[in-house]
Amino acid sequence: MNNKRRLLWQLPFLAFLVIGTVIIVSRQQSTPYQHDRGMVFGTVYHITYQSSKSLQKDIEAELAKVDASLSPFNERSIITAVNENRDTVVNKMFSDVFALAMKISDSTNGAFDITVAPLVNAWGFGFKGGAMPSRHQVDSLKALVGYHKVSLTNGRVSKTDPRIMLDCSSIAKGYGCDVVAKFLSAKGIDNYMVEIGGEIVTRGISEKRLPWKIGVTKPTDDSLNVNQEIQTIINVTDKAMATSGNYRNFYYKNGRKYAHTIDPSTGYPVQHNILSSTVIADDCATADAYATAFMVMGLDKAKAIISRHPELMAYFILASDDGTNKVWFSPSMKDKIAK
Predict the structure, then answer these.
(1) C-alpha span between 283 and 182 (Å, rounded)
(2) Which in 32, 40, 120, 172 has the greatest CB count within 10 A?
(3) In 3D, which of 278, 316, 36, 52 has the Cα closest to residue 174?
(4) Each residue of 144-202: pLDDT tens digit?
(5) 232 or 11: which carries more pLDDT confidence?
(6) How far, in Å, CA of 240 to CA of 203, rounded?
(7) Cα(271)–Cα(246) distance, rounded to whole angstroms?
(8) Three-class SS of residue 165?
């Protein structure tokens, strides 16, 4: 008798729970997905999120904060003030990125280095451009490169030489993705994909009610970014993904091909067989930085880093001696590959 009474008492509660769940699921399915597109950090962003209204103005306000902190192209940004040696107290965005950059520089033995800007500019890929540098110029500029030559104390950046410049372009897009993702989550949005210049953060499910699937472009000599042939498709859910590659950012000089990734230790563009480096991590700033570092390090050293950091997953497209492309990916990436 007691069991029957208990069951009768529980039935209304169970019915209420079932009805409530049905209503919530129905609302989630009927809520549309917004599709925002625009320009930021000199590249295009695409943001898809499930929301009853567009939040594009608020999203762009968040991105403007990142630009005001980390863009060397913004004359009023904090990083510009630091590079011009103006007395500047940095904000939290700058200090967070600086701290992460130093951590990854330590982890990669300097393969990732935000002080590499003078060398990048000398080789013609920075905002100054210019002719190919001589060996003497490279050696001189190397004296201004080295993450251990800068520090952040009490909100101010110190340099061992005032000519040292910071360049966060290899981490800022990823960080921007993280900032937008954090903003959307704070708004109670559970399903979204944030993409800035190829760096991506996802959460939940797509508009098709499926996990997010992200394509990795097949490397070709395509400096105009015309080719969009997909090498593979990766399931990326509740993770961040970044890709770095030399196959689109290069130029020819005297019959020789020069890639955009500069090795801080040599001062010269990297010369090895990694064409594309894709990294999955818990946050996009980390994925962005490691993807760049692996391009600098080459396959063997990158494998060593990955073995020490199980939280990272990597997918590399390699050039082989016979002219074909080969693939290597970390064991943890296997279950993520959809195609």
Answers:
(1) 10
(2) 172
(3) 278
(4) 999 999 999 999 999 999 999 999 999 999 999 999 999 999 999 999 999 999 999 99
(5) 232
(6) 9
(7) 10
(8) coil
Residues 280-300 pLDDT 10s: 999 999 999 999 999 999 999
Question: Any bridge partners for residue 194, and if so which?
Answer: 47, 201
Helix (H, G, I), strand (E, B) or coil at 180: helix
CB 89 within 8 A of CB 77: no
Of the candidates 183, 162, 144, the one whose C-alpha atom is nearest the C-alpha of residue 63 is: 183
Contacts of range 333-339, beta carbons closer than 8 Å, 24 or more positions apart:
333/234, 333/280, 335/235, 336/234, 336/235, 336/236, 336/280, 337/232, 337/233, 337/234, 337/235, 338/213, 338/232, 338/233, 338/234, 338/235, 339/230, 339/232, 339/233
Number of alpha helices (DSSP H) and beta strands (DSSP E) in the chain: 9, 14
Q: How many CB atoms lie within 10 A of CB 275?
A: 20
The residue with tokens 């990955």 is 306
Long-range contacts of 27-33 (CB under 8 A, 24+ apart): 29/209, 33/191, 33/207
Q: Which amino acid is at 325?
A: N
Residue 187: DSSP 8-state: T
- What SS3 class is residue 333? helix
DSSP secondary structure letters along 208-267? TSS--EEEEEPP-S-TT-----EEEEEE-SSSEEEEEESSSSEEEETTEEEES-B-TTTS
Q: Report residue 240 as tokens.
A: 């961040």
Measured CA to CA, the distance from residue 323 to residue 180 in angstroms comes to 40
Report the alpha-carbon angle 295-298-302, nearest 5: 90
CA dist., res. 46 & res. 36, Å (int): 6
